[in-house]
Amino acid sequence: MTMASASRQIAPPVFPQGRAPIVFGALLALLLLLAGRSLYLQRIDKSFLQEQGSSRYSRNLEVPAHRGRILDRSGEPLAISTPVKAIWAWPDKVDAMPEQLRRLAAALEIAPAALSAKLAGGADFVYLKKGVPPEVAARIAALGIPGIHDDDEYRRYYPGGEVMSHILGFTGDGDVGQEGVELAQQSWLGGQPGSRRVIINRRGEVVEDVESIRAPQEGRDLALSIDSRLQYMAFRELRVAVEANKAKAGGLVILDVRSGEILALANWPSYNPNNRSHVARERMRNRALTDTFEPGSTLKPFTIAAALEAGKVRPGTIVDTAPGTLTIGNATIHDAHREGALTVEQVVQKSSNVGAAKIALSLPPETMWSTLSGAGFGTPPKSGFPGEVSGRLRPAKSWRPIEQATMAYGHGISVSLVQLARAYTLFATDGELKPVTLFKEAGPVAGRPVLKAQTARAVRHMLEMVVLPGGTAPKAQVAGYRVAGKTGTAHKLEDGVYANKYVSSFVGFAPASNPRLVVAVMLDEPSAGQYYGGSVAAPVFSSVMGTALRLLGVPADAPVNNVVLPVEGSEVREET
Amino acid sequence: MVRINLLLLALLVGCGLSLVTSRHQARKLFVELEREQALARSYDIEYGQLQLEQSTWGMPARVDKIAREQLRMQIPGAGRVQLIDGGPR
User: Fold this and answer.
1) Could you count the other beta carbons within 10 Å of the beta carbon of residue B75?
2) Comparing A5 with A315, which gets the higher pLDDT?
3) Are residues A364 and A409 part of one domain?
4) I need a labelling partner for A539 at 20 to 30 A (CA). Which of A155, A199, B2, B65 fits?
5) pLDDT higher than 60, residue A5
6) What's the pLDDT band for A3 if we cut at 50, 70, 90?
């Protein structure tokens, strides 16, 4: 009985038929499902999980590269990029107390009302201020306003300000060159930021370099031919002269005769590249390279050189300029001063238009054209500056006699100031035209021979007579140095008619015994009474040349009491 | 046979552990390197800023202004300048 009841109690439960295979099958199916899913994730859809994984430990980091510096010839920095912050906001996420906004406005140096207006403008994204110094950005971040963020960017600073602005130009958004050398040398100066993949730990520190996706390319430094001492001095003197003569504008160029380097290039009016928000485009033009003018008498030496070269005249040949006028067709050429018979030397010294015209008319147009063209007129000077002009020199075949005559004294031809300065290297050397450049050269550079040495020396002697009493520019003399040069006082063309407005200029070089520098000065529309090149531009030349030679330590070639000014009222004047 | 296996096992464990430590060391050193490089970059930036500052203070325009206005200096006229021959250089 007990046995029976016990056996009844432990009798195995009777399961329905087939339950075990079902359970087994279900478990197997689940297992297969899991295996299948894992196979799917591992083999077929693997990129998703890999991305998820790598986003937790790997990062692509940008490797910054900054823009190269621009240096002057002695290594003084003229343009440097430094990291700054751009402060921006998501206006609808900004949630700040009035006090916080007030402090934000103060840090950004904008009016609180202007800040509120920007935030209420309805834009999704708004820049509050760009170019904010890093320490200010740190103060703003410390305010902890949600929705206010900052980005890294570079800003370019120009310590020279308005003194260098026309040469250097400036950069725009993203530190990319927009004007001047910054634009022309963008590929040299500009850096390419790189990128690399790294592994970071949970504190955000980089623990391993995985690969370099793109190596950064740092911007390279660029050395200009500019000497900042001379540049500043030239700029200061030019500015004083433009203001004293109430001129519209002015330009000044200093060239190194041996290498053709531009040591200084000043323009007035100027602008400050560090703060150019309200500057008219007009002020940004580098007039010395991108504007042309009719040079006037500063072109006469080239006419004379062409005639000497062709053997038509010698320095002592007499040219009759009486009665001070010359009529060709229905046009008449005038001299500002009546002179009688002049030697070729005196034609240059006293700047006689009639004399120059007569000499020019004795030449075939092609001969004169080839000398002018050889002096670099009508072709761009290739200084490396963007937008430089070639000026206008018409082909000799199209010249009429009156045009050839006026071209003899610099009308009917247009040049830029740098072209004019460069052309004078013909006389400063023994007839070589030097290439001009804005970039530093290692040493003297050979030029292209254009004139015979004998011709160049003869003209140099004539140009030296110009600054002596009896010439048009005694005020160009420099104490301690012999100088040579030529004045220009050209009527300006307005709507095809020559108006009573002038471009006064002086181009010269020194020391005459062994020329080192060419200086060209140009003043546009001096209107304070004086307008002759000899009284407006020559004094600027004298002070700039004197200071420059002394700064460069060029040995003197004359006693310091060499300056002889004519008695008051006996100056020789010229027009054109 | 068993002994050699045990020895190899110990060696394997040893190698494994040293791999882990050296890996850890490498990461620590790399973090340090990164930190130093960031420091070098920040010095670079600071150097640039200092150069900028120096060149702003030293611009001829500013020197000229201070010399003329505060120190009352002037450029001597040609008559007060004596040129001496430096001789052959």
Assistant:
1) 15
2) A315
3) yes
4) B65
5) no
6) low
3-state SS, one letter per residue, for chain B: CHHHHHHHHHHHHHHHHHHHHHHHHHHHHHHHHHHHHHHHHHHHHHHHHHHHHHHHHCCHHHHHHHHHHCCCCCCCCHHHCCCCCCCCC
* pLDDT above 60 (res A6): no
Clarify whether residues A79 and A103 are in a common domain. yes
Mean pLDDT of chain B: 86
Give A557-571 pLDDT, tens digit per residue.
Answer: 887 777 877 766 666
- Provide the H-helix boundaries in A350-493: 353-361, 365-374, 401-408, 417-423, 425-428, 453-466
CB–CB contact A563 B78 (8 Å): yes
Contact B30 A229 (CB under 8 A): no
Residues of A with CB under 8 A from a CB of B: 64, 66, 69, 76-78, 80-83, 157, 159-161, 163, 201, 205-209, 228-229, 231-233, 236, 478-480, 546-547, 550, 555-556, 560-561, 563
Same domain, A241 and A256: yes
The C-alpha atoms of residue A72 and residue A66 are separated, in whole angstroms, by 19
Q: Is residue A9 part of a domain?
A: no
Find the CATH number of the domain harbouring A207: 3.90.1310.10
ipTM of the complex: 0.76
Contact A232 B79 (CB under 8 A): no
Look at B61 and A157 and tell me if their CB atoms are within 8 Å: no
Q: Give residue A389's domain range.
A: 228-551
Of A77, A209, A232, the CB nearest to B64: A232
pLDDT digits (tens, 9 = 90+) for B32-65: 988 898 899 889 888 888 988 888 888 888 898 8
Distance from B45 to chain A by nearest Cα, in Å?
7
pTM of the model: 0.82
Q: Which of the residues B52, B54, B57 would you substitute to probe the A interface, choosing the one with the greatest number of A C-beta atoms within 10 Å?
A: B52
- Counting one residue from A and one from B, how many pairs have CB atoms under 8 Å apart? 80
The pLDDT tens digits for A113-141 are 888 888 887 777 888 888 788 888 888 88
Q: Do residue A219 and residue A276 come from a single domain?
A: no
In a domain, A40, yes or no: no
> Is the pLDDT assigned to residue A11 strictly greater than 80?
no
Task: Convert the pLDDT of each residue in A382-416 to its tens digit.
Answer: 888 988 999 999 998 889 888 899 999 999 999 99
> How many structural domains comprise chain A?
2
How many whole angstroms separate alpha carbon A484 and alpha carbon A392? 26
pLDDT, tens digit, for every residue of A142-152? 888 888 888 88
Q: How many CB atoms lie within 10 A of CB A545?
A: 27
A252 and A390 belong to one structural domain: yes
**Based on C-alpha coordinates, what's the Rg of chain A?**
38
Helices (H), A399-537: 401-408, 417-423, 425-428, 453-466, 533-536
CA B69 to chain A, closest CA, distance in angstroms equals: 15
Residue that is written with structure tokens 């823009």 in the block: A67
Q: For A72, name the nearest residue in chain B, comparing CA atoms only.
A: B55
Contact A208, B30 (CB under 8 A): yes
Q: Is residue A104 part of a domain?
A: yes
For residue B75, list chain A residues with Cβ-Cβ distance below 8 A: 547
Show residues of chain A in contact with B86, CB under 8 Å: 555
Quick one: pLDDT band at residue A1, thresholds 50, 70, 90?
A: very low
The answer on A546 and A517 residing in a single domain is yes
User: A213 and A283 share a domain?
Assistant: no
